[in-house]
Amino acid sequence: MKITKISVYQKDLPLKHPYWLSGGRLKFEVLDATFVKIETDAGITGWGEGTPWGHTYVPAHGPGIRAGIETMAQAILGKDPRKLAHMERAMDQCLPGHLYAKAPIDLACWDIAGQAADLPIADMLGGRDKEGTWIASSVSSGDPDYMLDIIKSYRKIGYKVHSCKVGGDIDKDIGRIRFLEDNRLPDERILYDVNRAWTRREASIVMNAVADLGITVEQPCETLDDIAGLRQITTTPISVDESLVTLQDATRIARDGLAEVFGIKLNRVGGLTRAVRMRDVALAHGIQMYIMATGGSVMADTEAAHLAQSIPREFRLGTWACQDMLTIDIAPGQGARNVDGKLTVSNIPGHGIVPDPAVLGDPVAVYKE
Ligand code: MG
Fold it and tell me: By Cβ atoms counted within 10 A, which residue in 122, 161, 167, 360 is the most buried?
């Protein structure tokens, strides 16, 4: 089998509500999504998506995905998309780094490999647990009552896990965390996501002040060096996501005991081929995981749901349904959807999603052999 044609689509995905990242420092209202259709001489077609969570969150850029695909297209045309390590190497040789641009191609290749093997991606990744994965909400930063109102709106659609954005004024953060924990239901879990907004001093003050609560804090500071310093002076469990980009980051975190949780975001780490290695590092070292899209449509959520469901339940803390925050559905009725607060993947080979052409419109670029 070989790749004969690559078509690239751009779609703006508006958010239902404006979103403020931790500390109110980053606001955005629309996501710049790229969809990739890869066709083969075997008649199998695969789809991938790359949607950064805005371009102010981590080094990833919607137009950069399309530029990266243009650069890599000739290196992957003619290759067998089922040979995922060969695909990875071909992309790395012609464009080192730029993992976020490689993720949609990687997903389209997994979609093709799954269809060729007649297996859903989760089974290709080792096998599905029969239970779906709890969805974590993404709660925009704000006053405690405002944040609790958002949690209450997610409770109505079954959510039991919440990722609450904090960071900024540390006295307010201590108050916010105590208020939200006081109002947390017994079967709920809240992850407090700082999105790098604290300095080391601020992080140590807040994390020590709430150490009695047994909460988990995500990405409290900017770098892994900061988190390594913080780990020595705090006991509150840490999840790392923005600083978990490469396999070397994963092995360092595991070996040096820098964090207790991995937050694996698929677009950031370059797709499933790379993410599955991080999963295995985590499993080998007793590290639990959140597996999430970086942002995007039901396709990105479903990609994350496939990897999540290949993880034993005791290591799987949650996933995300960014689709619930959007005003556009690119594939109505398809893919992993919220049912009672969980995403569950289907038996359909590959990831099982073909976008509605009427929603995507015409490709912005087409590459052929
Ligand atoms: Mg996070």
Answer: 167
